[in-house]
From TrEMBL:
Residues 40-227 form the YgjP-like metallopeptidase domain. It comes from the Bacteria. This is YgjP-like metallopeptidase domain-containing protein. InterPro entries: UTP_pyrophosphatase-like, YgjP-like_metallopeptidase.
């Protein structure tokens, strides 16, 4: 359960002002800062009863990190012929073949895209979403089945704020952009959401289950997403 948001501003060292959106959250146990490269704003989540002044002071000490994230997000990549794109963490060069049909296929370090050159980026985004749905569904069903956890529906979207979510009904939804990340990041995210099928909170029992069922180190994956996750939103059609 979340309360109302409030809007503030962060002043960076170069004098630029970045919108700061503060969200109190009943489940938050600490301050957490993210940068939304698409919206160009910083998002601060804080515990429901924490001091707003303390939270804003803390955010003001993170301006160096915000500047770095802002600079990284500024380099948007429009998908098209010759562009390099990470798929499951491996860089692939997009090659518009001009071949009949709109088939997209991996061949070595190339992503071969048939059909007309116009709207090639949109076709690649649809292909990536299809790949993500298939891979994440397989990963999730396999892990949930292995541990006897009741899974509902698996779906994908393109949220800005989270990489995955699990509903009380057992439905799990992911960001399709996880298909761009290395496999260990995707697998740790799957373990996180599958663990919510038993524990709908982030308490000690939940984290213990994540570590027990994850095939990779969740701390390493979480660190990668904190460091590189914003960059996955750079790719547009």
């Amino acid at each position: 359960m979340s309360s109302a948001r409030s809007e503030h501003a962060l002043i960076l060292a170069d004098g630029a002002t970045v919108p700061l959106v503060v969200q109190r959250h009943a489940r938050a146990r600490r301050l957490r800062l993210r940068f939304d490269g698409l919206a160009g704003e910083a998002l601060l989540t804080m515990p429901a009863r924490a001091s707003l002044r303390t939270a804003l002071d803390w955010a003001g000490q993170q301006t160096g990190w915000v500047e770095a994230q802002r600079a990284r997000a500024a380099g948007r990549v429009v998908l098209g012929d010759g562009v390099w794109l990470p798929v499951q963490g491996e860089p692939l060069r997009i090659v518009a073949t001009g071949a009949p049909g709109r088939r997209i296929a991996r061949e070595g370090d190339r992503l071969l895209v048939g059909g007309p050159a116009d709207h090639i980026g949109a076709r690649i985004l649809r292909w990536l979403a299809t790949e993500a749905r298939a891979v994440l569904t397989d990963d999730t069903r396999a892990l949930a089945g292995e541990h006897g956890l009741p899974l509902g529906r698996v779906s994908i979207g393109d949220p800005r704020a989270r990489w995955g979510s699990c509903s009380a009904r057992g439905d799990i939804r992911y960001s399709w952009r996880l298909i761009l990340a290395p496999p260990h990041v995707r697998l740790a995210t799957v373990a996180h959401e599958v663990a919510h099928l038993r524990h709908m909170h982030h308490g000690p029992d939940f984290h213990a289950l994540v570590r027990a069922i994850s095939p990779v180190d969740p701390d390493v994956a979480r660190a990668w997403l904190r460091r590189e996750g914003t960059g996955l939103h750079r790719y547009v059609g």
